[in-house]
Amino acid sequence: MIVVGLGNAASKIVENFKAVDNYKVYQLNSSVERTSKYKFRLKRHEEAEEYEQNIPNLKKFFSEIKGRVQFFVVGSSMSSNYALGVIEQLKHAEVELFYIKPDGELLTGMPKLVDKVVFSVIQEYARSGLLKSATLISNELLENHLGNVPIKKYYATLNHTIFSTVHYLNFFEHNEPEIGMVSRPLDICRIRTIGLLNMKNLEEKWLFPLDMDRDVCYYMCINRDKLENDGTLHKKLVDLLKQKPRNAFRKISYAIYETEFDDFGFCVALTNVVQKYA
After folding, report:
1. Total of domains in the chain
2. Do 203 and 156 share a domain, yes or no?
3. Which of 75, 76, 150, 173 is the S-S candidate for 111 at Cβ 3.0 to 4.6 Å?
4. d(CA 271, CA 100)
5. Angle between helices 8-15 and 154-173 in degrees, nearest 10
6. Of 134, 145, 233, 232, which is closest to residue 190 (Cα–Cα)?
7. Chain segment 187-236, per-residue pLDDT in tens
8. Which residues have CB under 8 Å from 185's CB, separation 6+?
9. Positions of E strands within 60-147
10. Same domain, 151 and 208
11. For the segment 172-185, what is each residue's pLDDT rounded down to a tens digit?
C-alpha cells in the first residue's frame, strides 16, 4: 500500500509506516535535504498564495504510484496549501485522505486560515468523488482520549496512535473476521472519522465530532482464549450493539477478529454531510 505524507508534520506521521514491510512511504516536506525516490524537497514560501502558484511538478516522483493511496496532511501546516495541487497529480490513483486537525482555539493568523480553507475544500473533493474518502482526525480529541501525554513524547505518541489505528483498519480490510461482516457504505458517504473502542462497554471515543453519521462500523479484536472458551461473548457484544442508535438513515455493522493480545477495537463512522469548521 502507498502512503504519502505532505509537510513536515504529516511526514513524521507516515514515518511510522516504514516499520511495516507492506507499505511504501512517500514524504514531501521542506526538511528533506535533496529529492530522492521516496522523499521530495518542498520549497517554503511566506504567503499562502505563493504555495498555490508554485505547485511542484511531481509527475516523475509519483510515476510508480498506482492503485490505492493513503494521503496524510496536517491542517495548520503551510505545506497543506500544496495539498490540492498535489492531489490533482494523483488523480490516476484511488486517494484516501487523512486530515489531521490541530486545536483550532490555539491557531491564529495564517495557520488558522489555511486550516479552515483546506478543511472545507478536501471535504468537497471527497463529496465530488475526486477522493475516495476524507477521514477527519482531531489532535485535541486524540490527546483527551489518550490521557496523560508527556510533552517530550507528545507528537511521537499522537503520531504513533494515528499510525496504529490506520494500520489496524487496513489489516481488518484485508483479513476475514471470525464472525460478523462490515457493511459496504453508500458511495455518497465519503467523509469519515475513526474512534477508539472501549471493549468493556463498546463506548466510542471518536477522534472527530462527526455530525449526522450514516454508517458506523465496529472492528473488535478479541483474545484467542476468549474466542475459544467464552460461549456467551458473542451475545454480550451483539446486545451492546443493539443498544446503539439505529434507524433508516443510520446503519450499524461489526466484525470480530482474533488477537493474541488483550482485547481492543476501533470504529469508523461515515457521512455525506460536510462538517462545519470549529
Report:
1. 2
2. no
3. 76
4. 18
5. 60
6. 134
7. 999 999 999 999 999 999 999 999 999 999 999 999 999 999 999 999 99
8. 214, 215, 217, 270
9. 68-74, 94-101, 133-138
10. no
11. 999 999 999 998 88
